[in-house]
Amino acid sequence: MNNSISKRNWLLIWILGMSGQICWNIENSWFNTFVYAKIAKDPAIISWMVGVSAVISTLATFVIGTWSDRAGKRKPFIAAGYILWGLFTIGFGATEFMPKNPFISAIVIVVAADAIMSFFGSTGYDAAFNPWTTDISNERNRGKLGGAFAAMPVLATIFGAVVSGIIVDKFDFFPFFVFMGSFVIIMGIFTIFTLKDAPHLKAVRHEKGYFHQFASVFKLKTVMANQELFWVFVINAVYFIGFNVYFPYITIYFNNYLHMSYMTAGALQGIGLVSAVCLTIPAAKLIDSGKPVRVICMAIATNFAGLLVIFFSTHIALLLLGIFGAGVGYVLILQTLTAWIKNLYPEDQRGQFEGIKQIFGICIPMVVGPLISYYIIQYNGIRMEIDGVMGTVPSNTLFLFSALLTLFTFLPLIPANRLHRSRMHPVSIQPLHKEDLNL
Predict the structure, then answer these.
(1) If pLDDT is split at 50, 70 and 90, which confidence band does 437 have?
(2) Structure-model confidence comparison of residues 75 and 71, the more confident one
(3) Which of 5, 7, 98, 179 has the fewest beta carbons under 10 Å from its own?
(4) What is the pLDDT of residue 349?
(5) Half-sphere exposure (CA, 13 Å, Cβ side) for 88?
(6) What is the CATH number of the domain that holds 409?
(7) 2 lies in a domain?
(8) Confidence (pTM)
(9) Which domain holds residue 404?
């Protein structure tokens, strides 16, 4: 078995992965900030937007992922998905110019625009690009691949926080969305001429048709046949519920509660997170040597400590330390789960199982997390006037609740660890001899 990923494929992994993560970062951070600044200072809109887009993203991954498995191709879905992703990113920015009254119609338009963009983002990135990276890798190099996937969101966050902050401060939101949407469109066109599907990828078609194949992943026997994988999915869900309690609001918190500029808040997050990425190299060795549980335990502990520091402090140096701790937790758990999950995917259902991953990694966390945030902000947020309009700003309590919630990740880690150990070190059954019976 070839243990290396070609230089060409590594280049594509980084180019497509980074452009996709930058676009997701824009949705997860700047869409929320945009709505708060241009539409209404109401956290309920953000909760609806995040929740609906998570459901749509999951649906898209299931539908298109199954389709790509049946087609035995990822390339056309990646290219089309990225191009349309970019177009609808620009379309979302255009909602700034819609009438704000009646208010309910404005909410519906914003939520719908985000949902459409998320559908095509998941088509290109989750349903096609992610399975493609699984197709071209194996168990001996997925620790490094997981490290790349863990570093990309951090680098995208740095870009989104620093570079995006500069663009927004200088040109405002709509030119920023036009620039970033155009960039993703170009990446989709680039894919058409450069990416090749894995040579061993075969079309997998159930005799009973698409919908039977689509539904097969939801059967109990599928869960029982992949118990370790489903417990790892639960780990993913629990951790990222806690993560999504604070992350969609972190820029709003720094900007409005601590009165930082977008650029200062971005620099603070960027420095802390890029430092955390350095730990992906030693973590990759532990993951590839079969020790993902050890890395996850370290990730949970550092995440908890980092969020507590952010909760207790308003000093720049201590906030930087807190962001570093939370960033280490995020980076290491994302790296570990990426490799662990890819190693457990059924070979003929990789695109389809990306949909299951979306349920546990995106849909549940992005619905439950912001819903928890909404109530925390309503009862513990600060009412203040922002740009002449009264609004509710999240307080530091958000980080305390997030820290406590992520500790529950240890619960599903227990059965996942037991199943992992039994898979890595199966107990051999020796033949029974007559003398063993003491007859």
Answers:
(1) very low
(2) 75
(3) 7
(4) 75
(5) 23
(6) 1.20.1250.20
(7) no
(8) 0.76
(9) 7-424
